[in-house]
Design a protein that fits this description.
This protein has 4 helices and no strands. By secondary structure, the protein is mostly helical. The chain has one domain. Helix 1 (25-60) runs antiparallel to helix 3 (83-101). It starts with 24 loop residues before the first helix and ends with a helix. The longest helix has 39 residues, at 108-146. The radius of gyration is 28 Å and the shape is elongated.
Length: 148
């Protein structure tokens, strides 16, 4: 007697399951860290650093460049009234707006990477502009003291 022949085995399904939707809560938390961090840097510079330099420049009675005048005026606006409310409110509003923008997006991490790069660019430009606004009067001061 011969044994009945068994049917060939069924092919196994080796296809991977569809990828799960990315968890966007991590992105949302990052927005609520990055934007307030930027506001904190602006607060530190406007309330702590710029007024000290402004006092030094006023003591020497040197004509200040336009960038320095703009920076000093921003610092005065920030510290004298509700400028800090505007800066922090804008930072929090931007965090909420970015979180909402990535809420339904197909690839929220891509949006986050783009926004993070833009924020770094803005931060670098602000720091370079602020540094120039502080260094430019020093050059004028050295020229005035040396008699040139």
């Amino acid at each position: 007697m011969t044994q009945p022949q068994q049917p060939p085995p069924l092919p196994l399904d080796y296809e991977s399951p569809p990828p799960a939707a990315p968890k966007a809560w991590g992105i949302w938390m990052a927005y609520f860290v990055l934007w307030p961090a930027m506001a904190l840097i602006v607060t530190f510079l406007s309330a702590g650093v710029v007024p000290k330099f402004a006092k030094i420049f006023m003591d020497f009675k040197v004509q200040l460049p336009a960038t320095t005048v703009l920076l000093v005026n921003f610092s005065r606006w920030f510290t004298s009234g509700y400028g800090w409310v505007a800066v922090w409110g804008t930072a929090l509003a931007a965090a909420f707006a970015m979180a909402f923008a990535t809420w339904r997006g197909r690839d929220p991490w891509r949006v986050f990477r783009i926004i993070r790069r833009v924020m770094w660019l803005v931060l670098v430009l602000l720091l370079v502009g602020g540094a120039w606004a502080v260094v430019a009067p020093m050059i004028s001061l050295i020229d005035a003291v040396s008699g040139k």
